[in-house]
Amino acid sequence: MRRLWELFWIFFKIGAFTLGSGYAIVPVIEHEIVDRRKWFDLEDFRDQFTLAQSVPGPFSLNTAVFVGYRMKGFWGAFFAVAGLVVPTFAIMLVVAIFLTGIRDNEIVAAAFKGLRPCVVGLIAVPCVKMLIKMNVWQMFLGFAALALICFTGISPIYMLIFGAVLGVVLCCARNKEELTQ
Q1: Which of 47, 71, 108, 137 has an alpha carbon within 20 to 30 A of 164's alpha carbon?
Q2: Tally of domains in the chain
Q3: Of 97, 112, 133, which residue sits at a domain end?
Q4: Last residue of a domain, one of 118, 133, 148
Q5: Measured between alpha carbons, how far is 58 from 66 in angstroms, rounded to an integer?
């Protein structure tokens, strides 16, 4: 039961204090799960990160589900998701109630403008960390996918499907080659 409440508290803090998109939580989760508590090694965490990106739904919720489930099954996923959602819901409720009165306030608008670059930085951190660990071909494929998505309008879904199929084909080819030797 202690681990369930620990999962809840970790994701509660993340939900309450991480602003921006789901990607902004990645460095925080990595710090809590990999560096601080050593529940996952870095490679395992990156696999969870990739899996969370690959399934439908909000990335931050997918991450909470995968981490929680891996730690304590169904109840781990439940407590992790509850921890992530409760503060976000409470903050959104308060904002919805009070923002109508301050939405045109210059200070509030300036605060949101100041947060934007910080969120971009938080999103860039996991991208750069993953890029550093890639080999030349992985980097090439990543930048090729980026270019295709940005400049041709190809859906990212097709890139994900292509990447998954390519990974499986290369893995099977490598395994077949190892078996024949």
Answers
A1: 71
A2: 2
A3: 133
A4: 133
A5: 12
Please list, in sequence order, all residues whose beta carbon lies within 8 angstroms of the beta carbon of residue 77, skipping any fewer than 6 positions away. Answer: 64, 65, 66, 68, 69
Tokens of 130: 């993953």
Question: How far, in Å, are 25, 85, 131 from residue 14 at the CA level?
Answer: 7, 10, 24
The tens digit of pLDDT for each residue in 46-78 reads 887 788 777 777 778 888 888 899 889 999 999
Q: Report pLDDT for 21.
A: 59
Amino acid at 164: A
Q: For residue 152, what are the domain limits?
A: 134-181
A 10 A CB-CB count for 34 gives: 17
Task: Answer for the pair 172, 62: CB distance below 8 angstroms, yes or no.
Answer: no
Element (H, E) at 111: helix 106-132
